[in-house]
Known about the structure:
The protein is mostly beta strands. Helices cover about 5% and strands about 45% of the residues.
Amino acid sequence: MPKLLLMHDGAVIREYPLDKERVSVGRRPVNDIQLDDQTVSGTHAVFLVLHNVYVEDQNSTNGVLLNGKRVGKRQLEHGDIVRIGRHELKFIDDKTQDFQRTVVISPTAAPSPIATHTGMKSAPASVIGAIPMVVRIVAGPKKGTIIELKKPYTTLGTPGGEMAIIAKRGSRFFLMPMQGMATSKPPCLNGKQLQAESQVLTLGDIIEVAGSRLQFEASADE
């Protein structure tokens, strides 16, 4: 069954199964998903579960953003992020089993022998999407380890603690925080703490999560 993950301030706070043909989202209590947020309209949007799943704006004041772009009605794909007001709803398609197991950043595993390019500081998204990408641990217990970004989602960190997700959407990679313990710190990108919004990664970006520093790079195998 497809579902939505409600995210707010970097945390996954609730899961909603899309178990009927029409699921409404809005500020009023009559909605299937109620968001107590003044930037959300009374009935802001609906999710239509037909052969595929669609999101449709209900003439809301502030609109519906799909992966950062305002839409009226659009079919959803696994991993899409729908922003309504200050909230993000992540669409999960149960038919797509593509989540990697969390890459635990601890001193238990040996470094990977994969090498990486150096000196590449920037490149257009079309170039990044055309070559294999990795993150290399540059500081921390597993320094030198290479984590390949082959799947649509790669989860980094310590389960129950500080965690982050790297998502591949088309030719771009995005970094987003993930819920851990209430006391865990949000991950950082280039020295700045991540908020609720996902951030586009560019070559050379530095990610800090679970006491380690990782660099976003192109694989040297290409």
